[in-house]
């Protein structure tokens, strides 16, 4: 797998499920050219470990409490550019894939990847290439071949709401819970609560039902027809 004399890649594993995390660590311990130097259960812990250990690569899960994998990837790439990130997740949908790549991940694998595929991805990102599963490469090519969608007209935010507060309001009107909004926007639930408190304070709203009526009244949401 590795060239003779090549140092093993120093890897940190990040996954919020203890059994899964320990299983990945055990698997990597059996692979040539990989040295696991640490593991973390959430994004905040991952960022701290990277600062402490300066690993070559982080194998990053996406959906985790407190700080998710997208935000952790963004922070790691901004604060520690010498460390590459390879996403290792159950999810291969566009809403997981593209935010992770935009945040700076150089590799993207699903958890059904074999040991050989993980080693190839790690070595690829260390050599400056992308470490993408074949299915992910196909998805990217399909996305690039699709015609560019026309940009939607910008929403005029009422009552001094920021763009993100307006976005949260629209998701409330769609019936999403705080946890669902957090996953949709790739932020923490605490951040969602802050946005909701701010938009309630600016608009004088007291609850989610009033927020829904407000969104309709301001023309941000159109009532269903038919």
UniProtKB/TrEMBL annotation:
UniProt xrefs under InterPro entries: CheY-like_superfamily, NreC/VraR/RcsB-like_REC, Sig_transdc_resp-reg_receiver, Tscrpt_reg_LuxR_C, WalR-like
SUPFAM superfamilies linked: CheY-like
Cited Pfam families: GerE, Response_reg
Entry-annotated residues carrying 4-aspartylphosphate: 61
Transmembrane segments: none
HTH luxR-type domain segment(s): 154-219
Signal peptide: none
Keywords per UniProt: DNA-binding, Phosphoprotein, Transcription, Transcription regulation
CDD domains: LuxR_C_like (cd06170), REC_NarL-like (cd17535)
Database matches in Gene3D superfamilies: 3.40.50.2300
Domain spans labelled Response regulatory: 10-126
PANTHER family in the record: TRANSCRIPTIONAL REGULATORY PROTEIN NARL-RELATED, TWO-COMPONENT RESPONSE REGULATOR
Name this polypeptide is given: Response regulator
């Amino acid at each position: 797998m590795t060239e003779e004399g090549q140092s093993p890649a120093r890897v940190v594993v990040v996954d919020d499920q203890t059994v899964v995390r320990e299983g990945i660590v055990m698997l990597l311990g059996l692979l040539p050219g990989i040295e696991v130097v640490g593991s973390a259960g959430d994004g905040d812990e991952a960022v701290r470990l990277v600062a402490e250990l300066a690993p070559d690569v982080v194998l990053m899960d996406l959906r985790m409490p407190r700080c998710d994998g997208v935000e952790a990837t963004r922070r790691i790439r901004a604060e520690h550019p010498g460390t590459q990130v390879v996403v290792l997740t159950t999810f291969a949908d566009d809403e997981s894939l593209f935010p992770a790549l935009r945040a700076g991940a150089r590799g993207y694998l699903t958890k059904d990847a074999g040991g050989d595929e993980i080693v190839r991805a790690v070595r690829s990102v260390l050599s400056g290439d992308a470490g993408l599963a074949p299915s992910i490469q196909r998805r990217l090519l399909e996305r690039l071949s699709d015609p560019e969608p026309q940009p939607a007209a910008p929403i005029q935010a009422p009552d001094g709401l920021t763009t993100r507060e307006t976005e949260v309001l629209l998701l409330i009107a769609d019936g999403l819970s705080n946890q669902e909004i957090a996953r949709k926007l790739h932020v923490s639930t605490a951040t969602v609560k802050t946005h909701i408190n701010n938009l309630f304070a600016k608009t004088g709203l007291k609850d989610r039902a009033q927020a829904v009526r407000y969104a309709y009244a301001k023309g941000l949401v159109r009532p269903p027809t038919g």
